[in-house]
Amino acid sequence: MIYAAILGHGVVGSGVAEILINEHKRISDKVKDDIEVKYILDLRDFDDLPYSDKFTKDFNVILQDEDVKIVAEAMGGVNPAYDFVKKCLNAGKSVVTSNKELVAAKGAELLSIAKEKNVNFLFEASVGGGIPVLRPMSQCLAANEITEVKGILNGTTNYILNKMIVDNMPFDEALKLAQDNGYAEKDPTADIEGHDACRKICILASLGFGKHVYPEQVKTEGITDISLDDVEYADNFNCVIKLIGTATKLADGKISAHVRPTLVSRDHILSGVHGVFNAVVVTGDETDDVMFYGKGAGKFPTASAVVADIIDCAKHLNSRKYVFWEDGDSDYVVTPDLKTRLYVYAKSNDYDALIETSALAFPDHDGIIKNRYKSEIAFLTDEDTESSLREKIASIKADKVKIMHTLF
Ligand code: HSE
What we know:
Blueprint: E1 2-7, H1 11-22, H2 24-31, E2 35-41, E3 55-56, H3 59-64, E4 68-73, H4 81-90, E5 94-97, H5 100-117, E6 121-122, H6 134-140, E7 146-152, H7 155-167, H8 171-180, H9 189-192, H10 195-209, E8 219-220, H11 228-236, E9 239-249, E10 255-265, E11 277-284, E12 288-295, H12 299-315, E13 339-340, E14 343-347, H13 351-361, E15 366-371, E16 376-380, E17 384-385, H14 386-397, E18 402-407
Parallel strand pairs: 1-2, 1-4, 2-3, 4-5, 5-6, 8-10
Antiparallel strand pairs: 7-9, 7-11, 9-10, 11-12, 13-17, 14-16, 14-18, 15-16
The protein binds L-homoserine.
């Protein structure tokens, strides 16, 4: 018999409990041993549940029970999850978690404790919900040098952008629909401002490149400024706007990482990722691009990944899975001035001046869309370094033109 405990009985925690309890035989057959949920930690009462006898409000009961070998943390947030996870690892218990905020902030430290204590710390569910991506990256792609990881890492924003693109629905309405459908949180800030995607690209980059990338090192922009005008102009360039998280290994071994709304060509595979689905593209030097696709959120997709980690821990109670990265440092993530193209959307009361000054700054811009009626234009710049493009855009601005938006 292997005893497990679950910290938190919210959406994910209850899914983990239900799978482990309702599918007890299936899970135990896979482990070739009985996995029994001994405790569920939650401050609320769940007296009506058939497994209500397992609930405790006291974390120390779990910590001090030496029979509990595996703890699934599904509370979310850094505190008190960090304290609880650290104590469990130090007590020689393996820990699995779906908590991306915790792993993005404290992953290196927790992995190092797990290594020292010869236990496992696994977090497949923290990126892409039910999509297997971290384990394939560290195991199946182990022969590669990973050069880039990028993707659509947040289901809520992808759902909102999709509604804007397909149904011409304004941002606020699409956000409300996402909330009504249970995709976005009541406070959707972490989703729409890009913080959730940022945490996930940090975890992917840390695992892929071997050193911790912290959220505050990643330039992050959300989707709150995207308008239906942007969506329509992007369509004219055969593109859709997606919130993309990217981490790239540079020639000097440093990392460039960002999360931002990006024009994605309709020819690119990521343009076809719709609704709440996520997709992660991992580029290896041997494999080239490998894409992982599936539901990035939701009770059972996420709980399925947590339970898979529990099964893995149960099968490796006396040995460590090779999941590890070193701590990062302050100059590990840099912002190189790379060559790129930018989408520019500009407006002016003086339409002729707008056309003239933009043509002066960008004589080679691609497929300018002119709207004399609205006195505005949109175009894609030629390729240049970002700093040079920004300088040219600033020179248009100086001539009483309002730059409505620039996007990568
Ligand atoms: N809020 C997240 C999303 C769910 O919309 O993708 C899990 O990270």
